[in-house]
C-alpha cells in the first residue's frame, strides 16, 4: 500500500490537518493516511501527562472516525522516549516492508529539516510530500527540493494545499476563553473540548 503519514501533537487536531491529509490522499493516489500523535516530541512543549495524551488521541479518533481512508497510528504515542522521525520511519520499514511511505510536512519543516536529528536517515525510507500554500514561494520551494535531492538523494514532491490560517495554538486560546472553535475543528472535536473543559488552565 501507499501510506501517507501525518505526524503532530494534534493538541488539538483541526481542519487544516484533515485538509492536508485529504489533499495528499487524492493528489498522490494514496491508500491510507495515518495520523500519528507524537508522544514525547523533542521540539514541542505539549502537555505530556497521561491524561493530556488520552485527550489528544481521543480527539484524533473522533475527527477521522467517518473517513475510511484515515487511520490513527499510536506508535509514537506509546513510546516513552523522544519521538524522532528517522527512527519511526526506520521501524515502519521493518514492520511493513511491502508498503511505501509518504511523509507529509509543511514548508517551514522542509527548510528546517537539516536541523532534525539524523535527518539523512529519513530520506531512504519515504517520499516527502512538502505542503506549499503560497504560490509566490514556488521557486523557493523548488530550489530547496533540488538542493535536498542533490545533496542527500531525497525524494520530495510538492503537495498543493489550501491556505488555512488555523493553528492548534489558536484553538486552545479560544477554548481557554470560552469562545467558539466551531468550523476550526470537526464538530465532534468541538463537542469533546467543551464536554471535557479542555485548555481552561493552559493556553
UniProtKB/TrEMBL annotation:
What's the EC number here?
A: 2.7.7.18
What reaction gets catalysed by this protein? nicotinate beta-D-ribonucleotide + ATP + H(+) = deamido-NAD(+) + diphosphate
Which pathway, metabolic or otherwise, does it act in? Cofactor biosynthesis; NAD(+) biosynthesis; deamido-NAD(+) from nicotinate D-ribonucleotide: step 1/1
Q: Where are the transmembrane segments?
A: none
| This protein's UniProt keywords | ATP-binding, NAD, Nucleotide-binding, Nucleotidyltransferase, Pyridine nucleotide biosynthesis, Transferase
Q: In its keyword annotation, does this UniProt entry include GTP-binding? A: no
CDD domains from the xrefs? Answer: NMNAT
Which InterPro entries is this protein grouped with? Cyt_trans-like (IPR004821), NadD/NMNAT (IPR005248), Rossmann-like_a/b/a_fold (IPR014729)
> What GO terms in the biological process aspect are recorded for it?
NAD+ biosynthetic process
List residues of the Cytidyltransferase-like domain.
5-174
One molecular function GO term is: ATP binding
| Functional summary from the UniProt entry | Catalyzes the reversible adenylation of nicotinate mononucleotide (NaMN) to nicotinic acid adenine dinucleotide (NaAD).
Protein family according to the UniProt entry: Belongs to the NadD family.
Q: Quote the protein name from its UniProt record.
A: Probable nicotinate-nucleotide adenylyltransferase
